[in-house]
């Protein structure tokens, strides 16, 4: 290689570096509407695999559960259609359809197309809610190649259709009705998700949990892909009268119990409703499920930390007061008090601080104290 060739390469490198250093206004991208969700979906639903696919259903169902928590719904129907689209229907108040004064479009369209828009920010609409970020159903819309919303309210049936987060029709009246409620039908976008086939058992497990966590509410799951010889679809109905007590019995089915009755606590402290059910079996493993506003906090958080501390303090004090440890030659650890424990803890927090939109860990420090405080169990 001669000196001229070396100089040419050097000039090309300098030009390339000069171009890469340019950072001007036209380098700034502005993502409008729900484009940000489609650009980075994992930021909003965790991932785009099977887990994220099912999270879409949870987001819509959680809205119906919020209506139930507010006292306006007691029935939720989830249907897997033959084409793997999902229908979620409730008998709540129905998403508002009147014109939004600030956005100059129907409230339904605002809810479905604008991030951080919803009734969860208005404390008068929902005292507690799992979807406080206001991005749930709009994310579902953004990540679906088709979505149809049907609203029953004010004696009319309203309908609007969407694709990829954008409306494809105007809001219109398609009939009359004698009840209220919301129906959301959506089909996940195959260009976003690596898998678009829903697993019945995964959805059934989530709906079963919700039934235990919300005594008195009925959730029905129907699979139109799975028909028997008479053409009837596979279906399960989930309903619980005793709530968490039945949940613990379900979890511990087949295990040898150490105590006869399920210990149950249902109280409220500092405006935080707390419900706990627990029992002990002959296993040595600890088995605790924690929830905040019906969201399974699989990574725990302050409520779980408070429960563990409170349980240890209560049992240790009882043992000391009754001289049960006087002859013990070793010091019991906090883990010793949780051998064979099965428990479900559920708290309702008006303004929860979750880590991420998928809400796997609670961060509210004040919740730790109210859960930890020992209380008489019944």
Describe the secondary structure blueprint for this structure.
Elements: H1 3-20, H2 35-39, H3 42-45, H4 50-69, E1 75-80, E2 86-90, E3 99-100, E4 105-106, H5 107-113, H6 136-142, E5 144-153, E6 156-163, E7 166-167, E8 172-176, E9 181-188, H7 200-213, E10 218-227, E11 233-238, H8 244-251, E12 263-269, E13 272-280, E14 287-292, E15 295-296, H9 302-321, E16 341-347, H10 365-372
Parallel strand pairs: 1-10, 14-16
Antiparallel strand pairs: 1-2, 2-9, 3-4, 5-6, 5-9, 6-7, 6-8, 10-11, 12-13, 13-16, 14-15
Number of strands: 16
Q: What is the mean predicted local confidence, pLDDT?
A: 85
Number of helices: 10
| Backbone CA Rg | 26 Å
Distance between the termini: 88 Å
Describe the global form: globular
Question: What would you say this structure looks like, in words?
Answer:
- This protein has 378 residues and is α+β, with helices and mostly antiparallel strands.
- The protein is built from 10 helices and 16 strands.
- The strands form 3 sheets. Strands 1, 2, 5, 6, 7, 8, 9, 10 and 11 form a 9-stranded mixed beta sheet that branches.
- Helix 4 (50-69) packs parallel to helix 7.
- It is globular, with a radius of gyration of 26 Å.
- Residues 118-123 and 130-134 have low confidence and may be disordered.
């Amino acid at each position: 290689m001669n000196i001229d060739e070396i100089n040419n390469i050097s000039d090309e490198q300098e030009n390339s570096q000069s171009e890469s250093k340019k950072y001007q206004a036209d380098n700034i991208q502005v993502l409008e509407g729900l484009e940000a969700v489609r650009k980075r979906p994992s930021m909003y639903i965790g991932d785009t695999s099977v887990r994220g696919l099912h999270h879409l259903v949870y987001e819509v169902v959680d809205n119906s559960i919020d209506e139930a928590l507010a006292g306006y719904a007691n029935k939720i129907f989830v249907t897997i259609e033959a084409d793997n689209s999902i229908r979620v229907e409730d008998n709540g108040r129905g998403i508002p359809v009147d014109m939004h004064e600030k956005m100059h479009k129907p409230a339904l369209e605002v809810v479905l197309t604008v991030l951080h828009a919803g009734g969860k920010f208005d404390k008068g609409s929902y005292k507690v809610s799992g979807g406080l970020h206001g991005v749930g159903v709009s994310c579902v819309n953004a990540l679906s190649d088709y979505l149809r919303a049907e609203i029953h309210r004010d004696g009319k049936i309203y309908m609007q259709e969407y694709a990829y987060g954008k409306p494809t029709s105007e809001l219109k009246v398609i009939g009359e009705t004698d009840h209220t409620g919301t129906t959301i039908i959506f089909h996940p976008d195959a260009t976003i998700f690596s898998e678009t086939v829903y697993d019945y058992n995964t959805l059934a497990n989530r709906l079963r949990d919700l039934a235990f966590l919300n005594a008195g509410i009925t959730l029905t799951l129907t699979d139109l892909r799975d028909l028997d010889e008479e053409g009837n679809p596979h279906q399960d109905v989930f309903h619980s009268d005793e709530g968490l007590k039945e949940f613990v019995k379900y979890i511990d089915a087949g295990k040898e119990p150490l105590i006869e009755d399920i210990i149950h606590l249902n109280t409220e402290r500092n405006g935080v409703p707390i419900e706990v059910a627990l029992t002990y079996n002959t296993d040595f493993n600890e088995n605790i499920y924690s929830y905040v506003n019906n969201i399974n906090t699989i990574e725990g958080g302050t409520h779980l930390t408070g429960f563990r501390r409170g349980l240890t303090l209560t049992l240790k004090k009882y043992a000391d007061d009754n001289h049960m440890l006087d002859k013990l030659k070793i010091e019991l650890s906090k883990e010793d008090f949780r051998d064979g424990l099965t428990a479900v803890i559920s708290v309702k927090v008006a303004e929860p601080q979750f880590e991420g939109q998928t809400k796997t860990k609670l961060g509210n420090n004040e919740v730790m104290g109210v859960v930890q405080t020992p209380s008489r169990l019944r």
